[in-house]
Amino acid sequence: MAKHGIGVVGCGGIAMGRHIPGYQRLGDLAEVLAVCDPRPDALAAAREKHGIQRLYESLDQLLADDGIDIVSVCTPPDVRESVVVPAAESGRHLLVEKPFSWRLPESIRMVEAAEAAGVKLAVNQNFRWKQVTAKVREIVSSGDLGELLLVGEEFFTWRDHDSGWRSEVEQLEISVYSIHCIDRVRWLAGRNAESVYCATSHSPAHAARGETLSATTIQFDGNVIGRVTASWCARGMRVNEFRVDGAKGSVLAQESGKVWLQMADSEPERVLNVEPDFTATFGESMRRLIEAIDSGTEPPHSGRDNLKTMEIVDGAYRAAAASQVIKLQGTL
C-alpha cells in the first residue's frame, strides 16, 4: 500500500502536542504532509516543532494539495462542519477530534456528507485505545465476569480554562472530558443506550463559563447501568479510574496504567501494570482509520458509530436542563 498523506486542519495544543506526534510514529503507513491554520504564528510553530513544510492558511489551499488523502480535523467544534463537509466532498477521508460537534444534528449531517461522498470518517475517541481500556475490554469480552451489571467511571481533578474557546462555551465538562468516559462506557458495555439522566453544576472558583461537574447515569439494554461522575473541582485526593462489575467478578482500572481483577471468593489480582503512552492513542486512532481505508471496511470509531455516543451526550445535556430522564431513540 502507498503511504497515506495527512493534512491537519487546526494547529492548537491538541494537534501540536498529541495528534501530529502520534501520526509521526506511523512509519510507512502515513506521513503528515501539511497543516492548515489561519494564524501565521501557528503555522510557523508547526514547521519549527514538527518539520512540516507545507503550510496553508485556508482549507481551500489544503484541499488543492493532491498529496493529501486524509484530513485530520483539530479545529474548535463550532467550525468542524464547515471543514468536514467540503473535505468529504473533495474525496478526503477524515479523522475528527472529539467532540464530534456541539449538537447531534450537526454530527448527523457530517456523517451523511461522508457517506454520500463515499469516504471514511472516524472520530478520535482515543480512550478506547488506551492499554488499560484494551485489557478491561478483553476481560469483559471473555465472559469471565458473568452477566454484566455496571460500567462506571470516576474522574476528580482540578482543571480550569481562563482563555481560548473552552473558557467561553456553555457546554464544557461533558463535551470536553466526560464524552471520553461516556464513549468508553458504551464501548465496554457493548449495548445500546435506552435512557440517560444527568445533573451538572458550575463551581464559582472557575473562570470558565460552562459546567465543571457532571454526574451521568445511562440505562443500557439488558439492564446494564452506565455511570460517569466527573469533577474539575477537586483540590485534592484526585481520582481517575473506571470499573466493570459482573455477576461473577469485578475489574478495576486506573489511568496510571494498572488493572485489577477480582472474582467471587478470591483476592484481587493485578493483571496489568504499564506506563501509559497517551500520545500513542492518537496514532492508533489514525492507524485504525487507515486500516479501514485500505481494507474497505468501517473503522470501529466511525462517525456513524459515534452518533450513539453523541446521542447520549445530547440526552445528558437535555436531562440536566429539564431535571428528568431522557429516553433515547437508539436508531442512529
Description:
The chain is globular. Helix 4 runs parallel beside helix 5 and helix 7 (173-189) crosses helix 9. Strand 12 and strand 13 form a beta hairpin. It has nine helices and 15 strands. The protein has two domains: 4-126, NAD(P)-binding Rossmann-like Domain (Rossmann fold, 3-Layer(aba) Sandwich); 128-279 and 311-327, 2-Layer Sandwich (Dihydrodipicolinate Reductase, domain 2), CATH 3.30.360. By secondary structure, it is an alpha/beta fold. It has a nine-stranded mixed β-sheet. A six-stranded parallel β-sheet has the order 3-2-1-4-5-6, sandwiched between helices. It has helices spanning 13-23, 40-50, 59-63, 80-89, 104-117, 131-142, 173-189, 278-295, 303-322; strands spanning 4-9, 30-36, 54-56, 70-73, 93-97, 121-124, 148-156, 193-201, 213-220, 225-231, 239-246, 249-254, 258-263, 269-273, 326-327.
Mean pLDDT: 96
**Under the CATH scheme, which architecture of the largest domain would be assigned?**
2-Layer Sandwich
CATH homologous superfamily descriptor of the largest domain:
Dihydrodipicolinate Reductase, domain 2
| CATH fold category name of the largest domain | Dihydrodipicolinate Reductase, domain 2
Helix content: 25-40%
Judging from the principal axes of the Cα atoms, what is the shape?
Answer: globular
- What summary fits the major beta sheet? 9 strands, mixed
- Summarize the helix and strand pattern as letters: EHEHEHEHEHEHEHEEEEEEEHHE
Number of domains: 2
Give Rg in angstroms: 20 Å
Secondary structural class: alpha/beta
What's the total helix number? 9
CATH domain class of the largest domain? Alpha Beta
Enumerate the strands of the largest sheet in spatial order, edge to edge or round the barrel. 14-13-12-11-7-10-9-8-15
Content of β-strand? 25-35%
| N-to-C span | 33 Å
**Count of individual beta strands:** 15
- List segments where confidence is low: pLDDT < 50 over at least 5 consecutive residues: none
